[in-house]
C-alpha cells in the first residue's frame, strides 16, 4: 500500500504541475500591440485575474503538501473533491474522500507509528 500511496501522490503532484503550467497566460508574457489604452484594459484585467488564479493554485498546493507532510489525513483530503480517486501503480483505485482519508491515515500510521 505504501508504494501505491506514493505513486498516487506522485500522480497528484504531476497533475498539479500540469495545472500550474497550463495556467500560464501568454498575455502576461508579451506586451499588447494595441496603442489604444481602452483596448489594453481587458488584457490587463485578464492578466491580473490569471495572476490571482496562479497564486490561489500555488497556495492550495502548498497547503495540501503541508497537511500531507504533517501527517494530517483529514486536512489533506479536505483539498480533494468527493469523487477524488487515488490510483496506484498496481491494485485497485481508492475512490472517494473517505476511502482516501483512510488510506492516508493508514500510511501515516505506518510511517510515524505512535509509541
Please supply descriptive tags for the structure shown above.
115 residues; mainly alpha; Nuclear Transport Factor 2, Chain: A; 5 helices; 69% helix; 3% strand
Could you explain the architecture of this structure?
The protein has 115 residues and is mainly alpha-helical. It has a single domain, classed as Nuclear Transport Factor 2, Chain: A (Roll), CATH 3.10.450. The protein is built from 5 helices and 2 strands. It has helices at 2-22, 26-29, 37-70, 73-77, 97-111, and strands at 85-86, 94-95. The chain has a two-stranded antiparallel ribbon with strand order 1-2. A hairpin with a 7-residue loop joins strand 1 and strand 2 (94-95). It is elongated. It starts with a helix and ends with a helix. The model is unreliable at 18-23 and 25-31 (pLDDT under 50).
Give a quick account of the main beta sheet: strands, pairing sense, barrel closure.
2 strands, antiparallel
Helix content: 55-70%
Beta-strand residue percentage: under 5%
**Mean pLDDT over the full residue set:** 76
According to CATH, the fold-level topology is: Nuclear Transport Factor 2, Chain: A
Name the structural class: mainly alpha
From the alpha carbons, calculate the radius of gyration and give it in angstroms: 19 Å
Amino acid at each position: 500500500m505504501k508504494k501505491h500511496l506514493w505513486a498516487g501522490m506522485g500522480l497528484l503532484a504531476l497533475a498539479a504541475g500540469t495545472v500550474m503550467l497550463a495556467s500560464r497566460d501568454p498575455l502576461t508574457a508579451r506586451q499588447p500591440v494595441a496603442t489604444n489604452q481602452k483596448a489594453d484594459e481587458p488584457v490587463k484585467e485578464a492578466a491580473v485575474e490569471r495572476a490571482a488564479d496562479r497564486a490561489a493554485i500555488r497556495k492550495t498546493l502548498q497547503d495540501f503538501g503541508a497537511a500531507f507532510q504533517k501527517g494530517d489525513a483529514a486536512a489533506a483530503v479536505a483539498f480533494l473533491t468527493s469523487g477524488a480517486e487515488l490510483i496506484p501503480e498496481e491494485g485497485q483505485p481508492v475512490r472517494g474522500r473517505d476511502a482516501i482519508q483512510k488510506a492516508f491515515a493508514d500510511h501515516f500510521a505506518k510511517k510515524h507509528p505512535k509509541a
